[in-house]
Write a structure and sequence with these properties.
This protein folds into two domains: 50 residues, no CATH class; 142 residues, tt1808, chain A (Alpha-Beta Complex), CATH 3.90.1570. 24% of the residues lie in helices and 23% in strands. The longest helix has 20 residues. The C terminus is likely disordered.
């Protein structure tokens, strides 16, 4: 069921979505009328990822370096999860229905076997599934209010742990609740906490030394 938009101007729409850049908001279908079918159609027909909120398609963008960080984290976390038979890890195109009309796409997500009856993996394009851990690798187009909205949604709907990885500052914010967070610099070690006890990752793994010459 499409959302009912109460905004009347483009400025109000962008503000309601967290002050995101206008180029990330798709006008077809018109804001307030988009559905999950539109999310899937854009992904299949255009190979572009969109989140769905308030009946509006919002494009998810990621640069090459952000993709490297997300893929590295997904691989290392996935190896740990597989070695200990803990659940499943999805990457940056793993669409999730967190609630009716709300589709989010964490850059990395972990779901424990306990949430998957019979250990059956979802086959739907957008499964009805709230992850235990959600990771967001920040891109230039992400705004603080956009990420605050995501944090509100994640914890309100049952996510237990959120990592916000910032490639520009080389820091990682670890949220164990909406009110509790710790900021780690690149020399710290990221830990799985109560969600994934035993998982540790030196953050220098995610933030290697930059090429100062700008050449390959």
């Amino acid at each position: 069921m499409p959302a009912i938009l109460t905004v009347v101007t483009v400025a109000e729409l962008l503000d309601s979505l967290g002050g995101i850049p206008a180029e990330r908001v798709r006008l077809q279908p018109p804001p307030g009328t988009a559905t999950e079918s539109d999310v899937v159609a854009v992904q299949v027909q255009e190979d572009r990822l969109c989140e769905l909120l308030d009946g509006t398609l919002v494009e998810k963008t990621m640069g090459y370096y952000e993709s490297y960080i997300a893929t590295t984290l997904s691989r290392l976390l996935g190896n740990f999860v597989a070695a200990h038979d803990l659940g499943i890890v999805a990457g940056a195109d793993g669409m999730l229905r967190l609630a009716p009309g709300l589709v989010r796409i964490p850059d990395v997500s972990f779901v424990a076997w306990e949430k998957l009856p019979g250990r059956r993996l979802p086959r739907q394009a957008i499964p009805d599934l709230v992850p235990d851990l959600a990771v967001e690798v920040l891109s230039e187009g992400n705004t603080p209010r956009e990420m605050a909205r995501k944090l509100d949604e994640y914890f309100a709907l049952g996510v237990q742990l959120v990592w916000l990885v910032n490639p520009r500052t080389e820091t990682t914010e670890v949220y164990s609740s909406r009110q509790q967070s710790t900021t780690l610099d690149k020399f710290a070690t990221l830990e799985g906490g109560t969600v994934r006890p035993g998982f540790t990752l030196p953050l220098t793994t995610l933030f290697p030394a930059a090429d100062q010459t700008g050449q390959a």
